[in-house]
Design goal:
The chain is of the alpha/beta class and 252 residues long. The protein is 42% helix and 15% strand. Strand 2, helix 2 and strand 3 form a beta-alpha-beta unit. Bound molecules: phosphoenolpyruvate.
């Protein structure tokens, strides 16, 4: 059975003290996670060890980094390797977020290298894909997302792909307050699953978790998560407020 995942992407927000408070509020909310349910918290790099410590007694809560570099190690001042993330206890790493693609010019080819390094170091990549507004307006979003999958993920073999989580994040919905409708989300998630089925077979496609991201909040999470091919969410803004994030977790 594929996992249902709600992941918090804090981005470049919160001080360490604020982050600690937020994690404590989440773990103390008394949420009962089902066996197939996972909560993932992706704080900024300097807080990874502290957050790992705070969640250590909560087996359903995992740690993610927000990025890693596309080389193994070496003279890359300011960068963080997949091996380093693994060594501080990260379970997941978000890769290919649209903000990384836009502001740091990450390409599909570079992301393929990051995916390989993450997997080689035992991290589960949360691979973000999704189209900008002009592509949605031109109704070419399927081809756009298919290319992202092909160029960053589809070099993997079936065994490796099993460890990847996909997050569909239409760029026009991220941080804008505009959410994809449940139908738009379901259509794209079903399309992504069909692409995987075509390349890797039906069983592989049914086993992979596909999350929705883009202005998800307590008021729309239930409808989004009720879609057959939506296996949870990657949450930005609403993950910074304990009450909102816990309400989203409870939306399954
Ligand atoms: C994100 O950045 O991954 C995201 C989904 O942000 P928001 O929830 O704020 O739209």
């Amino acid at each position: 059975m594929r996992k249902k995942i709600v992941a918090a992407n804090w981005k470049m927000n919160l001080t360490l003290a604020q982050g600690e408070q937020l994690v404590n509020d989440i773990v103390n909310a008394g949420i009962k996670l089902a066996e197939d349910q996972v909560v993932v918290i992706a704080p900024p790099f300097p807080y990874l060890l502290k957050v790992k410590q705070l969640i250590r007694n909560y087996p359903g809560i995992c740690l993610a980094a927000q990025n890693c570099y596309s080389e193994k190690s070496g003279a890359y001042t300011g960068e963080i390797s997949a091996e380093m993330l693994q060594s501080v206890g990260a379970d997941y790493v978000i890769l290919g977020h649209s903000e990384r693609r836009e502001y740091f010019h990450e390409t599909n080819a570079q992301l393929a290298k990051k995916i390989d390094l993450a997997l080689a170091n035992g991290l589960q990549p949360i691979f973000c894909c999704g189209e900008p507004l002009e592509v949605r307006k031109a109704e070419t979003q399927n081809a756009y997302v298919a290319q992202q999958l092909q160029e960053s993920l589809f070099h993997l073999d079936a065994a490796a792909l099993k460890n990847v989580v996909i997050a569909y994040e239409p760029i026009w919905a991220i941080g804008t307050g505009l959410t994809a409708s449940a139908q738009q989300a379901q259509d794209m998630h079903a399309f992504i699953r069909a692409q995987i089925a075509e390349k890797y077979g039906r069983e592989a496609a049914l086993g992979i978790s596909i999350l929705y991201g883009g202005s998800a909040k307590p008021s729309n999470a239930r409808e989004l998560f009720a879609c057959a091919d939506v296996d949870g969410g990657l949450i930005g803004g609403a993950s910074l407020i304990a009450a909102d994030f816990t309400a989203i977790i409870q939306s399954f």
